């Protein structure tokens, strides 16, 4: 097989090691294990029935690369099962490894999300503190 994309090829080759005693090359990662479990790794199924799933209710941020086709429309429904308040941002001018191909736009996008999330969390904490303060004092009873 041939890996056409140079960045993917370079990434994969980082896991190739020479074994001088054996006179051959081998994969440093557990390639055999990955291949045995590939049907699970490449699946949308996690083995949970929808009623068993309790979605994360906090903010969740997903980034996709404009130049990558790894995230498809069909995945968004599955993501929504696990992250009810997820946001999806597309970083244009980026390949699959967004942090390598467009780090400036990724940093900007993450900074914006974290700032917005921090504000939302602070507002929730303030509301919770106000609710606790409004409760009758139970210490003397």
Automatic annotation (TrEMBL):
Top-level taxon in the UniProt lineage: Eukaryota
Organism: Rhizochromulina marina
UniProt key word Zinc: no
Hydrolase listed as a keyword: yes
Record-stated family: Belongs to the AB hydrolase superfamily.
Name of the protein: AB hydrolase-1 domain-containing protein
Gene3D superfamilies referenced in this protein's UniProt entry, alphabetically: alpha/beta hydrolase
GO molecular function, a single term: hydrolase activity
Coiled coil regions, renumbered to chain: none
Family matches, as InterPro entries: AB_hydrolase_fold
Annotated keywords: Hydrolase
SUPFAM superfamilies in UniProt: alpha/beta-Hydrolases
